């Protein structure tokens, strides 16, 4: 009887693991090959060789780009180089990327920038908020942008017990922001187990100097986050569930889910087209190619546009798709006056005139 019980338990365990493995491969789009959709008038941006994970473009056309992300499980072509913030002026006929200087007193050797977001106060001062991972922990760094000097002045480091395993950030007021937690466990191996078992323990947190709280939870892996043009709605990408959550912002900063836009690709960072209000999503057609990097069969890139976001049937179209021959591991896309920047987790960055 004991042997029978053992065999039964073993069989059930193997069946469970087989089911979870099959579900994991399906979530990761393990068998998907991207259909190419190329743009004209494109070129790779010089100096951006080690990622361009997130991009935020000011109304003036100045684009901030975070580079050099060190992220567990992701390729890293420059492991000994710290991260940086680059700037591009998209008003120039041939814009170039320039690394911004950072003020003394901030440890640039430990700079590991992830998601970024800008905020402009009533006086017109620009602040850049950066998710940072020094020693693979999570902080939010606040910088003031000095345009004439092309530099960043570090003002503050924010830490909190709810601000763990951060991915992306969107600023909605002075020292007020929403941020996503993309995995619950901070230990790398436990995070891998979490990805495999898919318990949906990640969340969105709201931060202000007077209050920090979880405002939305139950995500497979909460990733990119941004805000609508009218500041009424927050859009959250759940990368492993392959969808975008449309959430209404309440007066107390809580978020109420209105709808979920289901997609067929793994959604990373989100931006809003300032001209149309459409969502632009940097996506991963096949995440297993990211996790198991092979330069002979690299991960592809994909950018989607979601129109009529609040309607019953939003329109989803492919702006750009490449099999990795040009751009690998796209994470974000952002537009300005008929131009688009497409960034990646660890690879290069693409500039196109639409």
Q: H/E series, N to C?
A: HEEEEEEEEEEEEHEEEEEEEEHEEEEE
What is the level-2 CATH architecture name of the largest domain? 6 Propeller
Q: Identify the strand order in the major beta sheet.
A: 6-10-9-8-7
In what range is the share of β-strand residues?
35-45%
Output the CATH topology of the largest domain: Neuraminidase
The number of E-state strands comes to 25
Classification by helices and strands: mainly beta
The mean pLDDT is 94
Shape: globular
The total number of structural domains is: 2
Helical fraction equals 10-25%
Largest sheet: 5 strands, mixed
Calculate the terminal CA-CA distance, rounded to whole Å. Answer: 71 Å
Keywords:
mainly beta, Neuraminidase, 5-stranded mixed sheet, 4-stranded antiparallel sheet, 44% strand, globular
Q: Could you outline the blueprint of secondary structure elements for this entry?
A:
Layout: H1 2-27, E1 42-44, E2 54-57, E3 62-67, E4 84-89, E5 98-99, E6 101-102, E7 113-120, E8 126-132, E9 139-146, E10 151-158, E11 166-173, E12 176-181, H2 188-197, E13 202-208, E14 211-219, E15 222-227, E16 233-238, E17 243-249, E18 255-262, E19 266-272, E20 279-284, H3 288-291, E21 301-307, E22 315-322, E23 330-336, E24 339-344, E25 350-353
Parallel strand pairs: 6-10
Antiparallel strand pairs: 1-25, 2-3, 3-4, 4-5, 7-8, 8-9, 9-10, 11-12, 12-13, 13-14, 15-16, 16-17, 17-18, 19-20, 20-21, 21-22, 23-24, 24-25
């Amino acid at each position: 009887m004991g042997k029978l019980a053992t065999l039964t338990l073993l069989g059930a365990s193997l069946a469970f693991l087989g089911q979870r493995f099959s579900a994991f491969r399906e979530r990761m789009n393990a068998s998907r090959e991207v259909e190419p959709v190329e743009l004209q008038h494109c070129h790779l941006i010089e100096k951006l060789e080690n990622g361009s994970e997130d991009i935020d473009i000011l109304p003036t056309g100045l684009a901030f780009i975070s580079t050099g992300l060190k992220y567990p499980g992701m390729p890293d072509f420059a492991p000994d180089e710290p991260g940086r913030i680059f700037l591009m002026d998209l008003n120039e006929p041939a814009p170039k990327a320039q690394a911004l200087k950072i003020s003394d007193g901030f440890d640039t050797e430990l700079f590991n920038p992830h998601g970024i977001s800008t905020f402009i106060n009533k006086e017109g001062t620009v602040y850049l908020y950066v998710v940072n991972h020094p020693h693979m922990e999570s902080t939010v760094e606040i910088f003031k942008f000095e345009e004439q000097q092309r530099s960043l002045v570090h003002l503050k480091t924010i830490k909190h017990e709810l601000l763990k395993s951060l991915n992306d950030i969107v600023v909605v007021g002075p020292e007020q922001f929403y941020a996503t937690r993309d995995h619950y466990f901070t230990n790398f191996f436990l995070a891998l187990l979490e990805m495999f078992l898919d318990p949906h323990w990640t969340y969105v947190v709201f931060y202000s100097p007077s209050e920090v709280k979880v405002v939305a939870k139950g995500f497979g892996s909460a990733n990119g986050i941004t805000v609508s043009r009218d500041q009424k709605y927050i859009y959250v990408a759940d990368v492993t569930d392959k969808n975008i959550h449309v959430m209404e912002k309440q007066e107390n900063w809580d978020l109420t889910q209105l709808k979920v836009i289901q997609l067929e690709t793994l959604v990373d960072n989100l931006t809003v087209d300032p001209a149309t209000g459409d969502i632009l999503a940097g996506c991963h057609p096949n995440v297993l190619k990211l996790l198991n990097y092979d330069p002979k069969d690299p991960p592809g890139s994909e950018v989607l546009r979601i129109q009529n976001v609040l309607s019953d049937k939003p329109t989803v179209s492919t702006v750009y798709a490449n099999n990795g021959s040009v751009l690998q591991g796209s994470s974000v896309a952002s537009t300005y006056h008929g131009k688009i920047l497409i960034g990646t987790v660890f690879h290069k960055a693409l500039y196109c005139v639409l």
